Amino acid sequence: MKTQAMSNRLLSVLIITTLMIAGCSTQPSRTKSGSVPIVEEGPLSTIQNHIAMDRLFEADISIQELDPYTLSQDDQVRYYWLKAKLAVALGRGEEAISALNAVPPGAFSRIKDIPEHDSGFIRAQALYLKGEFIASARERMFLSGVLSGQANQQNHQGIWSSLMQAELKDIEALQQKTQTVLFKGWLDLALLIKRNQINLDQQLSNLRLWQAQYDGHPAAKDLPGELDQLEDYVENKADYIALMLPLNGKLARTGKAIRDGFFASYYQALQAGAKVPQVKVYDTSQGDFWNLYKQAILDGNELVIGPLSKQSVERLQQEHRLPVQTLALNYGNRDYQENPEQLYQFGLAVEDEAELAATFARQQGHQSAIALVPQGSWGERVFSRFSQAWQGQGGALVEAQFFSGSGDYNKVISQLLSVDDSERRAYQLRRQLRTRLEFQARRRQDVDFIFVAALPHQARQIKPTLAFNFASDLPMIATSQVYSGSPSRSKDRDLNDVMFCDIPWILDDPELRSTVKKQWPQAAGGLDRLYAMGADAFTLYPRLGQIKVLRYSRIPGYTGQLAMDQYGQIVRKLSFAQFKNGIAKKTQGVVGHVEQQRSL
């Protein structure tokens, strides 16, 4: 079963998403065993061998138990080198920077068994993990002058990945200040791609001009991020698309929001001068879906976007091969190991966010968790994925509680934190001693954080209730459902310090979102994220073949950094944010759970 296979991979999920020490293919990825040689003896041998064999959790325990002040001067340098490498592999950017800064400048270069320039690569990867993408790119650009061969090519991909993650305004600001031709060339290349995300034709035209202007630039000779295949993507775009959504019935509001988001992106591209396809909309709320799907093919459509209902996606999964590329806007049976050729699935599954929350928590160094989720199938799915991901990454799940949402928060939270056990023990002691005792109830001390899945109005009650039960200092990590998407200091002040993942549409507030809100005022409510999903359906349609062949390539979207796994499912990487003074602010770079991601 696919779920079992996924569970087997989860133990290395933190490794996969971060580090390859010779310089990543774009995003930092896992250290290969060869990067840290196995050694037979020495005070650091246990740690070094754990890292070499990818046993990172054991290495983490061992390095915490070792006092570096008991080591020789050279071994102290090796200790901080290993500590920085391990921190990056576990996704802890801040910890890696601290380890690198713990030794004097030049100290790493004096140790023969530490690869040359290794500390520079680690620093670049750590900055990437912290979300300091411009700083990461600059670090790698400085390294470019001393590298050659494959290491230089890999470093170029790392530069490109960092620039693709950076904010447009930050790249523009640096471009205005930079005088170095090498730096300026990289920045100009990033700008021409970022400014034309919705217009592949314009991207291709500008790319050719850039290559003529920077014909001696290393990126002109070896285009990063598969840009050399851009011409093929432009030529193979579908000219006729069927958009299949429910426009009546119980899913009508969802279907219409996705449709409107799709056409908002469509008309934005049209206004930018892009060549757009002809789109015919089919209402799937009437009649048999499979017959309607076949009719859409007979009508001459070269690509189908939809359906939305899980049942209809499962009907498509029964086929061996679909006649045209089909981007379903939901996930069918996710246990299927083999899906029909040309079927791709894309959705905003909260279960995926639960897995990201587990990964993020491990990156923060947390080891033990408790969970609070709602009763019902939705809460059970979220809890199951979080539990599987968290324990698969070596975390301990101490306890979980399910709430009904009907005002029972204090009871379940008191049980979850074992406050009621504390009170019960005090009561029993009073009876045994038959005397009055001064007593202060306390919560359990064996957990590092609490995972919560809740809606905004529920989360606004849960956080104060945690404080009431002596857990105001307990970190709370949640899915995007805790945030309404609309900034409100008065409503969200009780959510201060809560950390959660969310999509760029919400956290970055792009221009298209403002356009959508003006056109459709209802977009400011609970349907907000669905408009982003519709917009990304338009972003994805010309690139499906691209991300299928170049698995784990990433496309910057409104719903996250988009990639495709081996099952044809679109998977998303998201940023995490934290409430400060009632306002959600991004805290670090994106967090993901897919292998060998590469930026486009």
Characterize the structure shown:
By secondary structure, the chain is of the alpha/beta class. Helices cover 48% and strands 13% of the residues. The strands form 3 sheets. It has a 7-stranded mixed sheet with strand order 7-6-8-9-10-14-15, sandwiched between helices. A 5-stranded parallel sheet has the order 2-1-3-4-5, sandwiched between helices. A 4-stranded mixed sheet has the order 13-12-11-16. Helix 15 crosses helix 26 and helix 20 packs across helix 22. It is globular.
Kindly summarize this structure in a few lines:
This protein is an alpha/beta fold.
SS-based class: alpha/beta
Strand segment count: 16
The profile of the biggest β sheet is: 7 strands, mixed
Enumerate the spans where pLDDT stays under 50 for 5 or more consecutive residues.
Answer: 1-34, 594-600
Query: How widely separated are the two ends?
Result: 31 Å
The number of distinct helices, counting runs of at least 4 residues, comes to 27
Which structural traits does this protein have?
7-stranded mixed sheet, 5-stranded parallel sheet, 13% strand, 16 strands, disordered N terminus, 27 helices, 600 residues, alpha/beta
Write the layout of secondary structure elements.
Elements: H1 2-10, H2 13-16, H3 45-52, H4 56-65, H5 73-89, H6 93-100, H7 118-129, H8 133-144, H9 149-165, H10 168-177, H11 181-194, H12 200-213, H13 218-221, H14 230-235, E1 240-245, H15 252-271, E2 278-283, H16 289-298, E3 303-305, H17 310-317, E4 321-328, E5 341-345, H18 350-363, E6 368-374, H19 377-392, E7 396-403, H20 409-416, H21 419-433, E8 449-452, H22 456-468, E9 476-478, H23 489-492, E10 499-502, H24 504-507, H25 511-519, H26 528-540, H27 544-549, E11 553-557, E12 560-564, E13 570-573, E14 575-580, E15 583-586, E16 598-599
Parallel strand pairs: 1-2, 1-3, 3-4, 4-5, 6-7, 6-8, 8-9, 9-10, 11-16
Antiparallel strand pairs: 10-14, 11-12, 12-13, 14-15
Helix pairs in contact: 1-19, 3-4, 4-5, 5-6, 5-7, 6-7, 7-8, 8-9, 9-11, 10-11, 11-12, 15-26, 18-19, 20-22
